[in-house]
Amino acid sequence: MLGFVIQRFLQAVVVMAVMSVIVFCGVYAIGNPVDIVIPPDATQDIRAATIAKLGLDKPLWEQYFLFVGNLLQGDFGRSFVYNIPVLDLIGGRLPATLELVLTSVLTATVLGVSLGIYAGYRPDGWLAKTIMAVSVLGFSVPSFWVGLILILTFAVNLGWLPAGGRGATVTVLGVPWSFLTLDGLSHIVLPAINLALFKLAMMIRLARAGTREIMLTDTIKFARAAGISESVILRRHLLKLISIPIITVFGLELGSTLAFAVVTETIFSWPGVGKLIIDSIAVLDRPVMVAYLILVAFLFVTINFTVDLVFALIDPRVRAGARA
Amino acid sequence: MMLLRRFWAEFRENRIALAALVVVVLVSLLAVFAPLITPQNPYDMTGLSLMDARRPPGFVGSGGYTHLLGTDPQGRDLLSAILYGLRISIQIGLAAGLVALTIGATLGILAAYAGGRIEMLIMRVVDLQLSFPAILLALVLVALLGQGKAQLIGALVAAQYAYFARTAYGAATSERRKDYIEAARATPLAPSRVILRHLLPNCTPPLIVVATVQIANSISLEATLSFLGLGLPVTEPSLGMLISNGFPYMMSGRYWISVYPGVALIVLIVAINIVGDQIRDQFNPRLRK
Amino acid sequence: MSVLDVRDLRTHFFTRAGVVKAVDGVSFTLEKGEILGLVGESGSGKTVTGFSLLGLVDPPGRIVEGSIRLNGKELVGMSDRDLRKRRGREISMVFQDPIATLNPMLTIGQQMRMALEAHGRVGPRAAVTRSEELLAKVGIPSPRARLRSYPHEFSGGMRQRVAIAIALLHSPSVIVADEPTTALDVSIQAQILHTMRDLARETGTALIWISHDLAVVSSLATRLAVMYAGRVVEEGPTAAILRDPRHPYTAGLIASLPAMAEPGTALTQIPGTTPSLLSLPPGCPFAPRCTHATEACTSEPVLERHGTRGWACFHPVGGVPA
Questions:
Q1: Which residues of B touch A289 (CB under 8 A)?
Q2: What pLDDT was estimated at residue A324?
Q3: Can you identify the CATH homologous superfamily of domain A91-282?
Q4: Where does the ABC transporter domain start and stop, copy by copy (chain C) (predicted)?
């Protein structure tokens, strides 16, 4: 088990190293590094001084190690726009995004898996067909458009829910959270639905396909032949067998939802990192872009690592492979 | 030809898919002939009058004709703008989809045929990229490359080629394991013959399926980027930008500027996806019978 | 009274391409503790017959006609609830591939307890005792410790023993064994065969042994039912059928057994192939491949009983007995 953890950890480190090279090349080598690190309105003297100070006159490989060295010390540079360390800027915005993403993905998973299992278990019923039609729509309709319609319907026409912002927050452990106040909760509903819809469609499809496949296996037939009731078969056999693909996708989706939050946060003016990155791209605040990319890569790798560990805990076959 | 005819006969049986195909063809035709149909060229800034801006559907403007779907904040006829917008969306979707298909399929088949180090290198990169959300990649690339049609297509290709590579690789490796490919490799046949005659034909069905889905995705992604203000220049509004421009006015009840371009976009994307679903079902041997 | 009495069973599949008559006239009886070999080529309907007996035919298939009486109770037309109560307790099934039947995510103990609790609450200690007892019976060493093992920790043969133990948990009257040794190594096949025969004898459980391999079945079964194109074409005591087959198809099967051939001579084959069940011509389904076929064979023969034996043929091998 320990060997397995170490092996996966080393893999994660390698992926992070590769990602840092890609981000470095993408932002420093393709673009003009001077423009990236120095504000456009700086004077010639400041430019020259900064170039020397940041070592931009040094060879590329030396610059890379400088870049990585700084990252490892938590130094991502300062934002041109806000003139504070990028890490503080992103750190301050991260809870809002995490709150939104977790709410959406959890809702989508619980709801999507239930609906998907139903649709897979009774594939020919009218309810199953309705569920699938909705999931096709959820897949096809661009999420920014769904956001607009949600605002138009529930905020503008009906006036039930606020159209944007985070609402009142409560500070717990030094971090402000919306979902703990009624006002905050009313603010999170629409963006969470918006962000969850695509994931919901995906989870429905996944759970349905998995259910259909599993219900045809000999494992289920054998259980039925032993007289085990359908509800026990669904709860103990199906749920256990389907958990493997669901957990994989849950992990992957958690990461990609972080990215999709960019769109939702822009539409609903949700003050998270997604909104920050769009604003930063618009004004070319490049240190923020670099930090964001590294952060997202880091979250991805961390999530994948966690998913691998969870696998090892729930699947006896992987556990056995890990022990060997 | 026989195969194609049988494929078509089966396709026709699904009424919904047939209707979707008709929609795709119709919308494409409208987009192609937009300059002949529309009452106004929305890119000609001199033809626009701010007097006509943000008027509701049915308004008769200074041009003397009825704006069936109203006008946008710059005073463009919305119907004309939508048809021109569809033109851009389809152009970009097709271009990005086809370039990504070519690059992706080449890499995937190369990896499958070459094996060894090349296979490992290509597929590692592809898998790494697949685990990364396409929208983020496109976002950053557009930000780095700047605005413009070519840059946008480049960003979309970079974000999507990996799907094609994975698909082609999957189909080609399962084919490569079959004995006849081994036999073909053992005979002094040129590699290009093995690839063109054997591997490529077997990759074609799944690639067609992925291509339809990815063209729809490109269109959606382009609209999303434009909506975020990272797509095409303001002088050539695509559907995403029209929607984005109308967004601030939605709060005051002038819904049509955002809603109608959105409806056009969704009809196109949903129709392409339904056609794609049907093609996939027809290619899937497990669902046959 | 027979434990199981099947009369004119018909199970059809209503596919888009047409009606597939997978089982189309199957009759046999099974006495207490008896082993019946159900033999036929693949596609002859023997597995579907097995599933029909348990009421587990998946859509688009369903039993359209016939009668299945288990311990005197009619199963055809019985509610799903009542059928479920009989499965596992009165009739159970063992499948071909032991790797696919057990759930890889649950321990053997958990799976056995689930099967036990399918018919009423069982305390944890009682469950362990009963499971252990059965694992020991099917020949699994150190059964108590193995209850905590997962399926992947067993070999194929051992997994099949576990599946058999699960099928035996409630001491059912009938076990349907669908080619339970086909996926195993030859040396292990014989062991499983003997285990099952001994268990049937010991517990009084009757066995229906489904197989395409006449040689395997005849070493085990007291009686045989030979299936062709969804029908039982010949039935009777194993020894009598092997010595003196009446249906030309049975005769062909026996003649093509390697053990029947002189070393060095070519094996006998039945000419032609199994017909498609979608477009079966009227009359005897074997007629197109039969050397005895005449004009009479364009109408369908029914299974006629002659003492302990029965066959469905107008021109049986060796002539019609007086």
A1: 140, 143
A2: 39
A3: MetI-like (1.10.3720.10)
A4: 4-254
